[in-house]
Amino acid sequence: MDATRLTRLTQLISQELGVIFQRLSQNHFRGTLISVTKVRISPDLSVGRVYLSVFPSKQAQEILDSIKSNQGLIKRELGEVMRNQLRKMPDFSYFVDDSLDYEENIDKLLRGEGDNPIA
Q1: Residue 55 needs a FRET pair 20 to 30 A away by CA distance; which of 20, 66, 89, 102 works?
Q2: Which tens digits make up the pLDDT trace of 93-106?
Q3: Rounded to whole angstroms, how far apart are CA atoms 47 and 49?
Q4: CATH label, 3-111, candidates 3.30.300.20, 3.40.190.10, 3.10.310.30, 3.30.70.3280
Q5: Residue 61 and residue 106 in contact, taking contact as beta carbons nearer than 8 Å
Q6: Are 43 and 87 in contact (CB under 8 A)?
């Protein structure tokens, strides 16, 4: 598959999943923010990985479990929106992107505010 088309599809899927997760968070998880940070799709469009950022991060595992249990519904909604771009919708796996938490922890350590096991 052409890399340009794959990149464009990845961006489109990321945007549409963001809309779906925004609706899901408004209906089921009040006070949480779910955003799609990265989508990766195999060149044959059969499988994909979706990385999600969840705020507050304490609820990340609960939300991820809920998303995994509603995978069919999410795939169906995404398929309805993207039916003109793809013949077959990829099977997605969902993961929590904790890079922001990692970055915040390093920032705290550099400022001397965090748990420093060396001192």
Answers
A1: 89
A2: 999 987 777 777 78
A3: 7
A4: 3.30.300.20
A5: no
A6: no
